[in-house]
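I have been asked to look over a protein record a colleague put together. The record follows directly below this note.
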Amino acid sequence: MYATVPDTDTGAAAGARRLRIALVIEDVSPSGGQERVLAELAPRLARRHDVHLFCHTVRDIDLSGITVHRLPPLRATLGVRALCFTVVSSLAVRPRDFDVVLSQGGNTLVQNFVLAHTVHRDRHRVRAEIQRRFGLKPAWRQAWEGVRDAAFAALERRAALRCRGRLIAISRSVRDYFVREYGLSPDEVHVACNGVDHAVFTPDLCAEGRPRIRAELGLSDDDFVALFMGGLWFEKGLPQVIEALARCAEPVRLVVVGRGEREHFAAQAAGLAVAERITFVPHVDRPQDYFAMADCLVHPYHIEPFGLVVVEAAACGLPLLAARSGAALDLIDDGAGGLFVERDPGDIAARLDLLARDPEMLERMRREAHRRSLQFSWDRQATEIEELFVRLAPRGAPEGGGEADR
C-alpha cells in the first residue's frame, strides 16, 4: 500500500523554479514516524522537482519521478547504525549537485536545510531520569548511551547552526526547543506540521470498529476505555498512567497497544492490583480500529515533538488526555478536543475520572477533536516546505549528477 498522495496540486505558485532536491534519511516507509513524513513529502515534491532519496531502505511509496540512491546498511543497534549513516550519507551526497539537501536533524554533514523532528537534549534528560528511577540498564550500556546521546546532540547542534534560517520544525514545541537550546531566534525556525490521512483516520470507523474490537478484547460497550498507543513506554509515561489507573475512583479500563517492556508493566499493574483492568495488545497494522474502540487517548509525553498518534486519534474523533507538547498544543483547548495532563498520576487519574463520569462532555470533545484535526494535512505540509525551498534555496544551477537505482 502506497503512502497516500492525492492528485490535488498543492505545490508552490505556478512557474516556480524547478529544484534539484536531495532528501536524506535512513529509511522511508508509510508505517509511522519521520519515515512516514518523507514517504508523504517525496512524491509530492516530485511532481514539480527533481527529487533524490538517499537512504538505506524505501518501501511502499510511489517512486514515480524519484531517483533512489541506496546506501549500504549496517546491521547494528544502540545508535551505531544512525551514526554510521551520517558518515555514509555525507560521502554519498555531493552538495554541489543539489539546490536543496534536506536532512532529518544531523544525519548528514552536508545539509543546507533541516527538517527537525526530535529533541535530543530533552530526550537525554528524560532517559537519565528514567535510569535514576528504575535502574533498567547495566553500567556499560549507560556509558555507551551517554556517548551516543552526546554525539546525537552535537550533530543536532551543528545542523541547527549550519542551517539557521533554513531550519524547519514539525511543531511549535520543536521550534521552541531549538530557540531555547541553541540560541536561535524564533524567525530562524519555520514550522511545518506533519499531516494525517483523513480518508483512513475518520470517526466513521466507530460504528463498526468499536463493537468488533471490544468483543475481541473482552470489553463491554459500557466499559470506559482509555488507550495508550506506541513504543518508548517509559519515556512516554506508561508508569504514571498505570499508577493513575490505581488511583481512579471510576472503574476505568486501559488498553496498551504497541511494543514495550510488557513483563515490567504487567508486574507493576499486579502490584497495584489493577492487572485485571489492563489489556496489552502487540503492534497492530490498523491503529484506527483501536482509536474507534476507545473512549479517550492518554498520552502524557511531555517532550513529544509532534505525536502522529495524537493527531490520528483526534482525526478518528477520540478525545485526548495529552501533555502540553507537539500537536496537542493545536488540538486541545482545555475542555475542547481533550484535556491537558501533567506527568503526574494524580492529575491523570482526576482527568480520567472526569471523562468517565460525563458522557456529554466526552461527546463534545469527540466532535471538537475531529474538527481541530482537519488543519493537519500532508498536502499542507508539503506546500509549506516547498515554498520555503523555493524562497530560501541558494541560487545557481547545480552541476553534475549521481548514479542511482530505481
About this structure: The chain has a mean pLDDT of 92.
